[in-house]
């Protein structure tokens, strides 16, 4: 289990303010919570912190596809809890982010299939 976790949850090139970046940071931080020794000179903690800061400095993300918005927001909330950064979510930037997401949703309460979702059509 530990070897599989070390292989699957290690930092990768996918950091940043989008669903795959925040997913990788969440997996990496979860692995670090279980096995802190994973960070020994490997930059795991720095990867998580850099990914969080990519999002937190501007309070926005680079997604606009059907499922990607929801995945990003959900995992961002989970990562903030694991990192003890829920206080970072109480500001006008996060309010504007959530309003942006709300405003993208059609009156039917569904998100139009645009952005990355087009390849799934």
What would you note in describing this structure?
This protein is 55% helix and 0% strand. The model has no long low-confidence stretch (mean pLDDT 82). It is built from five helices and no strands. It has 121 residues and is mainly α.
Oligomer: single chain
General form: elongated
| SSE arrangement, N to C | HHHHH
- List low-confidence stretches: none
- Helix % is 55-70%
Radius of gyration: 15 Å
Largest sheet: none
User: Taking all residues together, what is the mean pLDDT?
Assistant: 82
What is the number of E strands? 0
Detail the topology: elements first, then pairings.
Elements: H1 2-8, H2 19-34, H3 44-56, H4 66-83, H5 92-104
Offer a few descriptive terms.
single chain; 121 residues; mainly alpha; elongated
Question: What's the quick description here?
Answer:
With 121 residues, this protein is mainly α.
């Amino acid at each position: 289990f530990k070897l599989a976790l070390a292989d699957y949850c290690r930092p990768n090139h996918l950091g940043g303010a989008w669903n795959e970046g925040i997913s990788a940071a969440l997996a990496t931080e979860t692995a670090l919570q279980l096995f802190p020794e994973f960070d020994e000179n490997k930059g795991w903690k720095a990867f998580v912190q850099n990914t969080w800061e990519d999002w937190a400095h501007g309070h926005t993300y680079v997604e606009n596809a059907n499922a990607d918005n929801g995945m990003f927001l959900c995992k961002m909330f989970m990562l903030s809890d694991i990192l003890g950064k829920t206080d970072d979510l109480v500001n006008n930037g996060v309010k504007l982010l959530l309003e942006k997401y709300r405003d993208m949703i059609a009156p039917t309460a569904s998100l139009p299939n645009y952005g990355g979702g087009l390849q799934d059509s």
